[in-house]
Amino acid sequence: RSSYSCCYFVLPCCFFDFHGKYSRRQSKKTQYREYLDFVAQVGFVCGFHVEEDCLRIPSTKRVSFVGKSRTYPPAERALIDKQITQFIDSRQTCAVATCDRRVGFKHKDHCGGLCEGAGSEVPEDETETAGTIWMPGFQPRGKVEQIRNCASLPRDFVDEVVLNVANLLLNAVPQKSCSGMLDGNKNTWNQGESLSLREVAEHLNKETLKKLKSEYGGLQTLLKNNHQVFEVLNGRVHIRDWRKEKPSSKTKPEVKRRLSAEAFKTRLCWFFIHHPNGCSLPSEACPYAHGTEELR
Predict the structure, then answer these.
(1) Does residue 33 come out as left (phi exceeding 0), alpha (psi in the -120 to 50 range) or beta?
(2) Residue 255 and which of 89, 95, 192, 267 are 20 to 30 A apart at CA?
(3) Zinc finger regions typed C3H1-type: which residues (predicted)?
(4) Which domain holds residue 217?
(5) Does the residue 78 lie in any domain?
(6) Can you say whether the dihedral through the CA atoms of 93, 37, 8, 140 is positive or negative?
């Protein structure tokens, strides 16, 4: 839309429309094929001869579209521009949002003015004002993508949430005992109770939840990131019992087995420090350090 001489190449990937996620309309097609047809339709509406090609790349999404020539003469640019505007408007999913986006925007001036001068050229500075003329309120993605997978949250904040959730699971019901050997003596190790993510969230304060909601996956992502302490299965949170962890089924070469046995411990064991019964594993069997003296 920037100029009549513009050509384009597009490799469709994520299923998005102009204003949000793409909504499926045909159940007889796969989601990918339906989305490809939609992207091709955009090219046709914009007045291109759309060509489809399949790239030789190692990806499941490798169908591309190329627009090298127009289906109309330059004199009809204003008419096609009106057609494009109507198409964009028709894709809007919410009429209220449409009105909000057009506060202070004179649609008649944009469409009517161009249609009256059908034989005239579109102003040279149209590309510079595309954000306000073509789609009011449109904001492109920033050049630097913010990391929002809970990895950049302050360490003390994460530690506090982990400790709060662990204590919640441990104290949810009277101690759920699992017999095991601790320090060579017969003892019980409290694995706590499992709770749903919703139940866990209900016990966290509003400030914590607000901070987590700004991250992708929120609370669930944070708990999964701390897999040393938690196990999240089917929407329920459990405290991980390392005695039940199955060893890798893959047979390791001799060299790798030797290196694995001699591996340095670089992180402290959370259970050794915080769990009321300590770690369920003896020091030599635990992959984490029981005390700073074991750290390397």
Answers:
(1) alpha
(2) 267
(3) 263-293
(4) 148-171+191-240
(5) yes
(6) positive
